[in-house]
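Q: Hi! First time doing this. I have a protein sequence and I read that you can turn it into a structure. Is that right? Here it is:
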Amino acid sequence: MCGIAGYKIDRAVDGAVIRNMVGALIHRGPDAEGYYASGSYRAGMRRLKINDIKTGDQPLFNEDKTVVLFYNGEIYNSPQLRRDLEAKGHHFRTHSDGEVICHLYEECGVDLFEKLDGMFAAALWGEKERKLILARDIPGEKPLYFSRLSATEVVFASEIKSLKLFPGLDLALDYQSLWDFPTFLWIPEPQTVYKNVQALLPGHMLIADDKGIQISPYPNLFNQDKIGTSMADIVDATRDVVEKAVTSRLLSDVPVGCFLSSGLDSSIVTTIAARSRKDLSTFTIGFEDVADPYHGAADESAYAEAYARKLGTRHRTIRVGADDFLKSLDVFCKYGDQPFAVSSGLGLLAVARAARESGVKVLLSGDGADEIFGGYSWYSYLRAPGDGQPGQGVSGEEVSFQNFGMDINARLNTMNRYSPQKKAWAWHYYASENEKKRLFAPELFNGTRSSLRFFHQFKEGDAWTPEDYIRQDRLFYLPNEMLKKVDRMTMAYSIEGRAPFVAPAVLAHADKLSYAHLIKGDELKWTLRRAFRDILPAEIVDRPKHGFNVPVDHWLKNDWKFLMEETFAGGSALAKMGLIGRDSLALADTMLQDNRRLNGHTLFTYIMLNRWLERYN
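A: Yes, that's right. Below is the predicted 3D structure, encoded as structure tokens:
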């Protein structure tokens, strides 16, 4: 695990630049550093020692050092790949899981990445071809950003804060990204907050040489066998693929822990892990028992503590309140790297800090299971094709699933008259186009496009099936929100976060499941529950989904109320830059007090955008 940075340019740059860029990533790798220079190429890394602690420093090489690798992540199938490569005559210098990438390049060229079961952001340099290859893992667990400097020149880094240290980089804000942010709580990739900085998409590679810069996807070839036809076969296959994913992700020479809530997903991961790691640590969050209309009571730490005792793990409950999370906002803002407002990340940040204090460097979570196996509450309301009246908008108020002050049937009746693309927004997301038009200053955002364009890019037309809505969550919401949250918040405290449910084989398995396999009546994650019913207590298997929920609406009306004026009053960065309208404070307060709709998360995006502009732009 490490943070990587580098550039391929045809002009001289001060040698201190690469060290400054790498130094900005020390939280991703506090244990060691490494560098490489060859002509137009410069790169370096900061290492967090997880595997091959003694000999695994980077860069990594092939036998004659004509293939040079810096990479961030873990390759979980590296033991088998190493055996296969050694059988073909390859000789390894280290026991690092990443060294297999160098030798695979000799065997497979750029097709090597489709053979890797893991999370990674890789920078591979071919000395003979003078070629740079950047690649990112299939689910998108590890970040990688880049900026094109010319037709053949590129600079890259694991985080934008590192990239910004490259001299002369154009850092003009992207107003389209700022417009999209309150809708999603994050900026959708490949966009970033800067016009001239992009994210390399999950499952993609960038090749830069003297011919130019090309970006292309590579396939997920894991788990390509056909799924069984009987429900028993499907349940068995689910059990097998998840168990293998969790077990493989225990690869570590350092202590391992699990984020353990009281829910199904983290309990599955922790139960499987506890069978292999007798020294397993577990962590959960406990805070004031505030109820909200979506998840109910906030604190379920007692359930987690009881299950940890049953498993015999080294358990720690981290108790926090509104004031604790408030004190963490600057850390949350800094390590979000760009505007980021997924409030549940505050809880994961607290867990990562506690894990670090406990000597744990690897933390497994249950993230991804909801998107993969059908766990979100609105999935049970997804209609068959043809229901509703697609394309018929609703005048006046824009309704979404956040309208908890409305009767559920009234919400559904309104949403069913939306187009599928607008309904995809209404199921899962936050600020509407009209709300943003009222909060943002119109003169700066006149040319921006609707954030609904992302759903049109996924699929045009009105013939969306329930599977389409779920698949869209897997491809869009999962990498942009859940995996980004896990990576940024754990790396803030030099913890390697791992999410077994997004293993490439599990993703491929999920694509074979129909809506009927995922949801039966009101029972969510039907197949996953059946797959692990025999090893989990009934109270965990049968308990409805709760989710880790930070009561943002409640806190903004009480303990965090001053943040509203700090953000929307005349002295804020948002106001000084002319980004918000003059009456935005009154409008924001009206939105917060609206008893028909939860607007706390929408307003939290403006709070975090203002804080980011003040401190990190």
